[in-house]
Amino acid sequence: MLKSAQTVIDIQPDAVSVAGKVGHWLLELALKAKDRFTVCLSGGSTPKLLYQSLADKKIAEQMPWEIIHWFWGDERFVSKKDPLSNYHMVEEAMLSKVRIPAKNIHAINTEVKEPVLAAAMYEKELKSYYGSDRLDPEKPLFDVTLLGLGPDGHTASLFPGTDVLSERLAWASAVVGVKPEARITLTYPVLESSQAVAFLVTGREKREIAKQVITGASELPAARVRPTGTLFWFFDEAAYPRI
Ligand code: 6PG
To answer: What's the 158 CA to ligand 1 centre distance in angstroms?
Structure first.
């Protein structure tokens, strides 16, 4: 692992090894937690292997499921049963395989009329869970925020050129018109309110965009994430941009 003051880069041989490494990393952190451990889940396809590894016996039988709360960093504004749904992906990979108290699963409710309403409702849920309307840098909302990296440098549903990139007050926003399906995304201040923000990036197709992002030179959305705590990059060999 390469370390700087606030950034840790870990490189594994392949995507399965990344999933195993991050799975054990999360297990270690969760076992150290006292009464609550809060995770903000990433959508997309990359983290599916991780969620499957968390549900695998080797980790699952040690995981303190009863104290772990699961939130989503973004969601597609589709039914929970839709294959596009990030909830659906996590449910298939993990939630359906392990015993997690229903109260610990904080899905973004997309069964409402408008994406803006879904965002407002989720903001209310986040604030109620956190216990305040104001994020305190000394008291991060999440223990771990998991993020992916899109081919255009987006992360969560923080897409290049969208207004939500400058949103500093709302905790969750609707993002409409970028993708065929509307999105709900947490905003930077909330994603960053975390002891650890971990990007999971695998596959040769991510190497170039990853290089632009980790050199910090770019204004790409993923490059603008400034966590309260430590920033982790978990790469496989194929995606790691030899800088
Ligand atoms: C989503 C994610 C999104 C994702 C990246 C990478 O809802 O799709 O939040 O930000 O992490 O697009 O996606 P892949 O892991 O599928 O490459």
So the answer is: 10
